[in-house]
Structure formats: C-alpha cells, structure tokens
Specification:
Strand content: 15-25%
Number of strands: 12
Order of helices and strands: EHEHEEHEHHHEHEHHHEEHHEHHEE
Strand order of the largest sheet: 2-4-1-5-6-7
Shape: flat
Distance between the termini: 22 Å
Number of helices: 14
Helix content: 40-55%
Length: about 375
C-alpha cells in the first residue's frame, strides 16, 4: 500500500509539468493552454527512504522494494466545473478515487504563461477550486438523500447511518465549510469513507514558485501557507521548473544542481513527506536474503492489520509478530545479533506497529 494523490488546480498552474517531473515520464503533455490533459495520467514513484538500503545491505538482500506512491494528474478545473463547465464532471469523478488532493497553485509571475483569471492570486485560485468541490458535494448529497429515503423506510441500518452523516456534511457545506472540517468519530470512519465526498479528502497546497524562490518561497507562497493553517491543511513550496530539470539529470548531477539552488532535497521528497504527515502514514519493513521491502500503513495500526497489507490471509490467521526496532537492527548488525541481544520481541494482536519496525509475521494457513 502506498497512497494515491490527485494533482488538481486551475489550468496553466504547472500541474502537468510537475507530474512529468515527479514521475520522470512524459506521459502528461505540458503545454501553455487549458485542458492539455484530457484523461487523468497516472504515475507511480518510489518513496525515498534511506533506511531501506541500510537494512538491505545488512541482510544482503537480493531485491530492494520501496513503498510506492501514485500520482493522478487531473485536468484543470475551472469556475462552473460542478455544473459541467470545461470537462468538470469527468474530472470531479477522478478526484473521488484518490486518498488526498495535492492542489497546485501558481505562485510565480510570468507574462508569457496565460492565467485563466487574468491575474496571479493563489489564495483566490484555491477558493475557486474549493467552492467548485463544495458545490459538487452539495449536489451529490442532495441526490443521495433522495435515493436513501426508500431504503430508510425499509429499515436498512446502513442507509440510516449514511443519511445521518450526509446531513451533517450538508450542514457544514451550506455554511461554506468543506466536509473535512467535521469531527467524525471512530465508529463512523468506515461509513464516512464510503461516502467519498470531494471536500472530505485531506488537502495539500503545492506552491509552484519560480526557480529563484524555490528555497525561500515568496509572498504568494507565504499567503498560501497562512491560508492553509487557517483551514487545517498543509502546504509545501516547489518549483516545477527545477523538478523538471533535475528529472533529466543523473543522480550526482541532480544533487549538485539542487545544492547550487540552495535545496537539500528534491521537491518529490518534500511532497511525499508532507503527504505522509497529512494522511498520518508510516512505514514498516520486512527484511531477509530474498528481499527487503517497505510497507506503508496508517499510524496506530495493529500488528494483524499491518500483516493484512501483505496478504489478507496473514491478518485472518495471525498468530504473532517478531519485531525489531530499526535502530536496534542497524546498531546490532542484523536480525541474528538483535535476537541474541534480546532485542527481537514477540508481539501479539494488540501490538501497535511503530515507524521503522522490522517485522516477520507468523500465521496459520
């Protein structure tokens, strides 16, 4: 499991350029006109994690398999998208299938690149997109409530739960707030996720700045950061132009270029780190001579649930997990030494997996 992030924004803010660079492909056509991306382009990237190589070196693993992150480049939304303007309905449907939304905002001045609103104002752009998503959610909820009425009369418990949550969401949306501002209790999580409301998805604002401001940001990105904090969202500063350039370079050359620009890591790393924080994700590892592999899970997940990420049968037949903390594995020089030092622990069903745990699951067939 990685996570699936939809890249959204108004036309000509640098979405496709960023997508191309991050996925190191030319799958998305980047051009200076609206709607150059028609179908949602999908790309997978490896999640950078230096711990993977350290573990694999010690275990002398034949393969190294990092966690994966999926980007979906969704074509530019415009005012009226919720009513089908542009290619709105199709794109809104694509957003529903993602875990989080990376909202790319234009935070640079360039007279050669057209802006659909005629001026650069990233906060206003963010509000335009948010409004369209809220309007789409309101329309969707009103239709669903009508369809649920018959099932409720028939006494379907799930329909009653959906109706209650949809009405809560409709209340905040009609007050001009996204659905993510609702405080959903744990017992409602499953039903809430099934509703797939657009504005319930966690949002990360990506400030696309020019090359000179990639390290420090600018007044545009500062305004976005302030807005993000008030909305309980996150923001990162990235230069799509820099990402595009380093995607064409070898590793050593890319590192030298980043250093010249005053950057200590690529924008991809910043985006993934922010995404992990936003979705409260973490990583555990399986490690052996055949392969060392990184697995992405939610924070707070139990050992059986973590095993289920590998295979559903592992969760069903879970017996126990043998666990070594990453720091102990590295400091002691591998599994055998960690076992001899008493640092390999046998954990049961109630164990909450920690970031960096090196795990082996025992299960019944």
């Amino acid at each position: 499991m990685g996570f699936k992030t939809g890249i959204v924004g108004l036309p000509n803010v640098g979405k496709s350029t960023l997508f191309n660079a991050l996925t190191r492909t030319a799958a998305a056509q980047a051009a200076n006109f609206p709607f150059c991306t028609i179908e949602p382009n999908i790309g997978e990237v490896s999640v950078p994690d230096e711990r993977l190589d350290k573990l694999a070196d010690l275990a002398k693993s034949a393969k190294r398999l990092p966690a994966r992150m999926t980007f979906v480049d969704i074509a530019g939304l415009v005012k009226g998208a919720s009513k089908g303007e542009g290619l709105g309905n199709q794109f809104l449907a694509n957003i529903r299938e993602t875990d989080a939304v990376a909202h790319v905002l234009r935070c640079f001045d360039d007279s050669d690149v057209t802006h659909v609103e005629g001026k650069v104002d990233p906060v206003a752009d963010a509000e335009t997109i948010e409004t369209e998503l809220m309007l789409a959610d309101i329309e969707s909820i009103e239709k669903r409530l009508q369809n649920l009425s018959r099932k409720i009369r028939g006494g379907e418990k799930e329909a009653v739960e959906q109706d209650r949550l949809l009405r809560l969401a409709l209340g905040v949306l009609e007050n001009g707030q996204p659905a993510r501002t609702l405080n959903i209790v744990e017992e409602d999580f499953r039903t809430w996720d099934m509703l797939q409301l657009l504005t319930a998805k966690p949002i990360l604002y990506v400030c696309n700045v020019d090359e000179e401001k990639a390290a420090s940001g600018n007044t545009y990105s500062e305004a976005v950061e302030k807005m993000a904090k008030t909305h309980g969202a996150a923001s990162v500063v990235i230069s799509a132009a820099i990402e595009e350039e380093i995607s064409q370079l070898e590793s050593e050359e890319a590192n030298m270029f980043l250093e010249e620009m005053g950057l200590n890591q690529p924008g991809l790393n910043k985006l993934i780190e922010a995404g992990y924080d936003l979705l409260e994700l973490q990583t555990y590892f399986t490690c052996g001579p055949k392969e060392t592999r990184a697995w992405t899970i939610q924070k707070g997940v139990s050992a059986p649930q973590a095993a289920g990420v590998i295979h559903g049968d592992f969760e069903k037949g879970f017996i126990r997990a043998e666990t070594i903390a990453f720091e102990d594995y590295i400091a002691l020089g591998g599994e055998s030494a960690a076992r001899d030092a008493g640092k390999l622990r046998a954990e049961g069903k109630s164990y909450i997996v920690q970031d960096g745990d090196v795990m082996h699951f025992l299960h019944s067939n």
